[in-house]
Amino acid sequence: MTFIPLAFGLAAMVATLAGGLLALRLQHRIGLVLGVTAGIVLGVALFDLIPEALGLAEGRWPVRGLMLFSAAGLGGYMLLDRLLAGIPRAAESWRGHLGPAMLCLHSLMDGLGIGLAFQIDTAAGWMIALAVLTHDVADGVNTVSLSLAARSEAAARRWLLVNGLAPMLGVVLGLAIAIPSGMLAPLMALFAGAFLYIGACELVPRSRALDPRLWTSMATLAGMALMLGVTHFAH
Question: Are 73 and 192 in contact (CB under 8 A)?
Answer without folding.
Answer: yes
